[in-house]
Amino acid sequence: VLILLCLAWPIRSLGDCAPGMKDGSTCTAVVPFTNANPWVDSFKLKSRSFVIGGKSFVISQAWEERTDEDPEPTGMKWTGAAVWDAAVVLSDFLCTRKALIENKRVLEVGSGLALVSVVAATLNPKVIIASDYDEHVLGLARKNFEHNVPALARQERAQARQLSWGSEEDAASLEPPFDVIVGSDVVYREEMFKPLLKTLRLTMSDSTLLILAHRPRGLGEDKFFFWLKKEVDVVEFLGPELLPREFVHSDVRIHICRKKNPESSS
Predict the structure, then answer these.
(1) pLDDT digits over 232-263, tens only?
(2) Where are the beta strands (DSSP E) in 53-196?
(3) Model's pTM, two decimal places?
(4) Cis peptide leading into 73, omega within 30 of 0?
(5) Is there a contact between 111 and 199 (Cβ–Cβ < 8 Å)?
């Protein structure tokens, strides 16, 4: 089945339009749909459409609702306000590896608006839990579940739950361990690295698969992965050249990890 979506885009350059049109007129051009449209400020859209794994998704965003006064434990007011490229890349990757999710208990850490969890919900997990620290963000995640996978949301196979990194109580409430833990762009602030690592310890077992997608931004990510690799083995690494072409410019990469065997730990 071939799915082709196109956008009608206004063009204001006279040279791009049909002969005889007056200067200042507008016409439209039909262009192929892309999840990474360079002509739109996607962050500021109230909702954003995606085609991933041959399915269509609509994700509500909240960038314009944020103010400088909003309290943010991360220190960054835009976390959980929009869908970032790494979430799209990770979602697309999971669709190519459906067996990683199928019949598994899956946790997304730092889910934000939960695109990754919404897409994973279509891959037949036992349960998918989108987790974040902020109830407002979790409300949007629930809305996105209800809009895109309403049956799974009603069955509570797609849930949005509170999880503050480093909180033993929050982690225990999710009934770990999980078969798979995923996260996208969760490595962006150094003071959050150790709480995140603690949460991963609390929610992983020896057999848990950890899949992290991130875009390097020079925010100390190397330190996080240095610490992480003391506890896990990276069993597979995908650089941007192996990921969807429309996001090569984002330099997103994916780490797939498992806990180290005691014999391999130094």
Answers:
(1) 999 999 998 887 776 666 789 999 999 997 66
(2) 55-60, 105-108, 127-132, 158-162, 180-184
(3) 0.81
(4) no
(5) no
